[in-house]
Each structure stands twice: as structure tokens, then as C-alpha cells.
Amino acid sequence: MEPAGSRRPVRGIVPVVLFALALLLVALPAVGPARAAPVPALPSAPVLGSSATWNGHNVTAAGSAGTAFKVNTNERVLVNFSFEIATGAQITTARLIVYYFGAEISANSVAANPLSGTAQMNWTLGTYTYLLQGIYRLSVSLVYGNGSTAWSQGFYINAQAPYRIASGATIFLIVLGLAEIYWIATVARGPRRPKGRGTAPPTPWEPAQPATPPAAEPPDPAATGPAPEDEA
Amino acid sequence: MSAGSSGAESGAVLGAVVVFLLQQLGYLSLSTLVPALEWLIVGVIVFGVFGGIVGAILGRRRSR
Hints:
The complex is a heterodimer of chains A (232) and B (64). Chain A has 232 residues and is of the alpha+beta class. Chain A has helices at 13-36, 168-185, 221-224, 228-231; strands at 47-54, 57-58, 69-72, 77-85, 91-100, 103-111, 118-123, 134-144, 149-160.
């Protein structure tokens, strides 16, 4: 039987499941339409040259987590696409996707100008602004009119919340971690004191008895003299 | 539930929390599925074993 002292008010797995569900619910609106979009069969023409810049820096400079672009979670970033393709092909969309655990958690698209060979996107973390921070892999891609990808390039960003901990997920994880450490530490506490030892707490309908000194013993007749009726 | 298994349970959750927290603080990338799952499993197992040992030790001290 489980000792009363080690019993926990909330099971440890519950907060983690709630956290995963919250992430999933937030991610679903971004993931759903992107996965539901049909991808027709493709024609294709070679892309002669393409590039993308993140606030003026070529995204190929952030090809690993160690060289990730640093960005504030509430910052708006200008992403510029430029491309040159062979005659006959038409790139219509520029897309930027954020990945987490291999899944797309956010996808932004803008219309590309096939004549000038450019596209501009003002990107933010969107719904994750006050929820997530940390290192994420992004991919920029150029998409043909039929939905197939003409060019794609992956890179990393390091999104930082104010004061480094001011994001919902970070605060939740810190609180949950401290709670788990507390629960491990409370294993050392002994079981609750069994009934019959010590003073039981008062019941709600019974007011607490004030602390009174032990009842005085009856006075010793020899020490106090004769009783009043004896004097009479 | 024994103190050891209780500690292992808390330690396993703590391992997952630590992995997610390292990602949130910018020390770990969980964007790609396979290394992310590896990190998560390693964290859960290592911290689960550690939590179980700590829980068993503390439970033994309590029973003395």
C-alpha cells in the first residue's frame, strides 16, 4: 500500500500530457491546411538560380544550429526571395515553414513576382510569439503554380524571448521541473502521524479548544486549614 | 507505490522537462524528428534511473 506521505496531489505525467496537447492544438491550424493541400503532378523547368535573405543575410550562413540567426520572439523579420528560372516555368509562391519534431508548426506564404523574380515576406512567430522560444529549423522554398517545389533551403534561427524565460512554455517547464524535484524530495518525508498521537485538528463544526493549563488539583486540607463548615 | 518507483516516475518526467527546457533556452535543437526523439528518450531514461535511485535512497532513510 502506498504510504500516505508519498502520495502526490497530481500525477507527474498529467502536466506533460497537457503540455503536449496544448502544443498540438496550437499547431493544428498551421499544419492542417498545409497537409490537406493537394499536390498536382508537375511540369518542370530548371531553376537557374535562387536565394533568400533573412534581414539581409543569406540564409545559407545559418545552415546549422550553432550558426543560427538570433531573433527576438516579437521581432518582425524581412525575408527576401530572388530567383531566376528558365523560360516556360512560373514560380508563383514563396513559402517559409517552421519545423518542430519534424512537423510543420507554422507555414507562411506570399505571392512571388515572376517578372521581377522576387518575393518579400514580413515574418513573425505569429501565434507562438508568447509561447515558444529556442532553436528552430526553418525552410524557405519557391513553389510553382501547380504546387510543386522548385527550390528549397533550410536554415536555423534562435528565437529569444525577453529576459530569456518570458515565454509560456519556458515558464511552464520551469514550474513543472521544480514541482518534480519537490516531489522527489518529499519521498524523504515520513508517513503522516497516525491517529491518536498528538493533537488532532479541530473539525469544522467544533471550535478549537483554547490552550488551558492542566486542571488544578483539589487543595490539600492540611495545608489550607479547616473547611468553612468546620469553623462554624 | 514504493519510494523508488515514485522517484523514477518523477525523474522520467523531469528528464523530458529538462530536454524541452534546453531547447527553449537555445542549447538544443528539436526540429528534426530523429535526434529530437533520441534526446527525449535518453533524457527520460537517464533521469528516470537517477530519480529511482534517489527515491530508493530517500525511502530507505525514511524507513530507518
